Amino acid sequence: MEPVLLGIAGASAANAGNLLERSARAVLEPFANVLRAAASSLSPVDNKLEIEAESPAKVLADRIEKALSTAGIEITEPLELAVSDGQLVVVGNQPQRTLIEAALAQDPTLGEDVSQLLRNDAKSSDSGDEYSFQISGQQSRHVIFSLFTGDARLELA
Fold this sequence. Notes:
alpha+beta, 5 helices, 6 strands, 157 residues
């Protein structure tokens, strides 16, 4: 008889579990619909565009990385760049300086876009010329490009 009693007790526990599950669904169903509606209103494309709009430095870093990789130039150390006469130039001693500058010049708007990024940063931070130096008689801020584990970064300096 004991096996029969255990079988009845097991069935009662299963029915109680089903009742609990149905009750929880009935209570939570309206919230699930709200969450589904909110999730469907967010598309991955919208999120990607929003992130890119918030990070112009990342977009420029990717353009610099593309120009360098297209030319077959590998960067292992951070690269300090400035804008001179509308073109990106390498600041400091860099063995591949000429090749890097030639590769970056292949993107004709890159220098102006970096200049715009620096101007926007100067306006928002009001730092002005705190980190400036001279290039061919012009005061100019600079950026530091780095490529760490395949992730291109551009920092304003």
